[in-house]
Amino acid sequence: MASQAVLLANLGSPDSYRVKDVRAYLDEFLMDERVLDLSYFGRLLLVKGIIVPFRAPKSAAKYKTIWTSNGSPLIYISQRVQEKLKSALQLPVELCMRYANPTPASALDKLQHENPDLEEAVLVPLYPHYAMSSYETAVEHVKSAFNTKNYSFKLKVVPPFYSDGHYVDALTTSIKPYLEADFDHLLFSYHGIPKRHVLKTDCTHSHCFSLENCCAIKSEAHAVCYRHQIIETTNLVAEKLGLRADQFSFSFQSRLGTDAWLQPYTAEQLKKFPQQGIKKLVVVCPAFVSDCLETLEEIQVEGRYDFMKAGGESYQVIPCLNDREDWINTLVHLVNKQIAQSTAA
Fold it and tell me: What pLDDT digit, counting tens, does each position of 56-94 carry?
């Protein structure tokens, strides 16, 4: 029996593209206080009374366009990663989602049931960067399920790996083939978050957005600063690719509501680029390790339309790391590193 195991945690997906399933998914997602950080009653009124009734049918139509015979792309890609990692590590590997199914409770129960001698489970949040609405909420959701039962094993968590050499190398290798042809610009499009989320996670309460060029000034706030971490990933990859400063940039997608979010916005950049002489664009989405609605529909379809309509000539979207072998090797490295630290402690 295995004494160690792995639990992968990804974002999640509706059980189907039917409106009722999309509505249930959006309810759970938007009622998360780390996503929409309002009072409970404020979220209740906004989510169930305004956002979901209008958004669910539109989102369902979008999910339908990306749905496959295997179901949700994010789910079946995550399942492939699970199987490949299990084979590579020769350890039990389970999969859970922050929203919808499979739940953390079902995955933890299965680990316990099938491995009665289990001593430690390594939780790998499939988010390279720290944000309260992604990495943090996934970790806390799993911990909450873990603490409700008297499991016989310990739970260890892999920290954000935005600057890990293996991750950076895998991301760089996935991008290289798309830059072999003539291109004008590489856009790193990251999932957006409200500016207030960065301020809330600033443990110093005096660094983020308080100093000019704050992300470049060393601070303990960077351990949980999403903006600093995406800039770090961008610069590390661009350096490995040998890009000039004018050949790449970053932006933020998937904005919700009217509050100030991290800028620049991807949708606006795509419309501006052709007027700036950028006619041949390559886009990569490093915040997502599995292709999903945000990459397959928002960037592939909507983004292409906006860019080409504005005068673009060529638009290529690089697939996420998905189940690439170098990504599986990165996960092996992250798990083994965490196991080694636990053993040393």
Answer: 999 999 999 999 999 999 999 999 999 999 999 999 999
Distances (CA, A) of 341 to 122, 157, 199, 206: 11, 11, 31, 32
Are 155 and 171 members of one domain? Answer: no
One domain for residues 258 and 310: yes
The pLDDT mean for the chain works out to 96
* Mean pLDDT along residues 2-16: 96
Distance CA 258, CA 239 (A): 35
Are 283 and 335 in the same domain? no
Residues 235 and 89 in one domain: no
Residues whose CB is less than 8 angstroms from the CB of residue 261 and which lie 6 or more positions away in sequence, other chains included = 192, 193, 194, 195, 252, 255
The stretches of 31-72 forming alpha helices (DSSP H) are 40-46, 52-66
Contact 186, 286 (CB under 8 A): no
**CA separation for the pair 18, 63 (Å, rounded):** 9
Distance CA 9, CA 93 (A): 11
**Beta carbons within 8 Å of 319's beta carbon, 6+ residues apart:** 174, 291, 295
Contact 250, 188 (CB under 8 A): yes
My answer on whether omega of the bond before 159 falls inside 30° of 0, hence cis, is no
Distance CA 315, CA 187 (A): 11
C-alpha R_g of the chain:
20
pLDDT, one tens digit per residue, over 230-276 is: 999 999 999 999 999 999 999 999 888 788 999 999 999 999 999 99
Domain of 84, CATH number, reads 3.40.50.1400
Residue 170 is inside which H or E element, if any? helix 165-175
pTM > 0.90: yes or no: yes
- DSSP secondary structure letter of residue 324: -
- Peptide bond connecting 116 to the previous residue in cis, omega within 30 degrees of 0: no
